Amino acid sequence: MRPLLLAGFVACATAVSAAAETVSIDTATGSAELETAPETVVVFDAPSIDTLHALGQPIAGIPQPLYLSGIDDVVASAETVGTMFEPDFEALAVMQPDLIIAGGRSSAQVDALSQIAPTIDMTIWGEGMVEQTRARIKAFGELFGKQAEAEALTGDLDAKLAEAKEAVAGKGTGLIVLTNGGKISAYGANSRFGWLHGALDLPEAHPGLEDDTHGQAISFEFIAETDPDWLLVIDRGAAINADSQSAQATLDNPLVARSKAAQQGHILYLDAAPMYISGGGASSMMHTLDEIISAFGTSES
């Protein structure tokens, strides 16, 4: 049922007390004035769910499927309110949330969701992802009265970034690839995964890659010719639990095998969901950094 058919519910859902305190926070579309400490919060953005969970903020409604691990308590307590692409507007109107958080895959639904309750777009994307993540942590801390938790979480993130940057230093070039069944795409410094280059000062094995959402389609020959010291691999199928050829099977190829990365045991298969599904979430970013620290920190320069 579309929100325009739910006018009676909407009037109740969007009522705001004249005495309520408000706060101005940064969002993906600019500054937003919101009532502080909203109680019933619905989130249609995986990175936001990740960060709010890290801050200890309860979430009343989430979409499914989510493909995120480590949030079992959220899944157990939150009501399912549709999918990222198709919110359940009737369920939302009955729930009467105080705030809806959209972003990424659900950002196209912001206008429709705004007819149910105040809705903000907290998309994190592309260049400057670490700065965006810090900004979202700060915004959520101010909105939910969790400034101390936000400061501590930012400190933890910055410490992980520093440790990973030190681990990467002097270890050569990197090429970030995403496999999708038997297909391969490469991602550069300005892409959705490019923060691994920019924030960690990891040199690009092939500068100038297209920064398209889906990356630049490449071949096994491209990997052999680029010859990276490190191959950082994200398996889309694994991220969404698809029944598809694994990244390991896709890259089991003679051309890939002769690259420096393969010869030196430097093909790093990253946990896919924290990069592909919840990239920019505070806990997800730190999880990936731990993988980088572990792999690069134990290798020889």
Automatic annotation (TrEMBL):
Ranges where the Fe/B12 periplasmic-binding domain occurs: 40-300
Subcellular location, record wording: Cell envelope
Entry-linked InterPro entries: ABC_transptr_periplasmic_BD, Bact_iron-sidero_bind, FatB
GO terms for biological process, alphabetical: iron coordination entity transport
Keywords assigned by UniProt, alphabetized: Ion transport, Iron, Iron transport, Signal, Transport
GO cellular component: outer membrane-bounded periplasmic space
UniProt superkingdom: Bacteria
Signal sequence region: 1-18
Family according to the record: Belongs to the bacterial solute-binding protein 8 family.
UniProt-recorded name of the protein: Iron complex transport system substrate-binding protein
Protein species of origin: Salipiger thiooxidans
Taxonomic classification: Bacteria, Pseudomonadati, Pseudomonadota, Alphaproteobacteria, Rhodobacterales
